[in-house]
Automatic annotation (TrEMBL):
SUPFAM superfamilies assigned: RNA-binding domain, RBD
Species whose genome carries this gene: Drosophila simulans (Fruit fly)
Gene Ontology molecular function: any one: RNA binding
Domain RRM: 20-89
Protein name, as recorded: GD16538
Pfam families, per the entry: RRM_1
Length: 121
């Protein structure tokens, strides 16, 4: 079994501007704890999230994220080839929109805990 704290907090906020967050695309069916377990050899995980076959891992340092990207990009995990890169503002925005929210916020993307901006896409 997995340690409960290995995956860190569940990420819910939108773009952070931090270069220590990675996106893992083409995920098989897995939990955020399984994804975190895959990433923990590369550094301290502060948070994680899985949305629509994409995972986000927030490391404590940019160098940890870089190590994870270099080691995990294009590996096979549960019969799927992972695509791992830095999480850009756009990749996080798309996932936030797909998560959905209250009907009043459907046209907005969360930028920080208390700040939203209109999504023109």
């Amino acid at each position: 079994m997995f340690r409960n704290d290995i995956a860190g907090i569940e990420l819910t906020s939108g773009p952070t501007g931090l270069k220590s967050r990675i996106i893992v695309r083409n995920l098989p069916d897995c939990t955020r704890h399984e994804l975190a377990y895959l990433c923990v050899p590369f550094g301290q995980i502060l948070g994680s999230l899985i949305v629509n076959k994409q995972g986000f891992i927030q490391f404590s340092k940019e160098s940890e994220a870089t190590r994870a990207i270099n080691a995990l990009d294009q590996i096979v995990f549960k019969s799927k080839i992972l695509q791992v890169s830095n999480a850009s503002f756009r990749s996080i925005e798309r996932s936030q929109v797909q998560i959905g929210s209250d009907e009043d916020e459907d046209d907005y993307v969360q930028q920080s805990e208390n700040e939203y901006y209109e999504d023109d896409s």
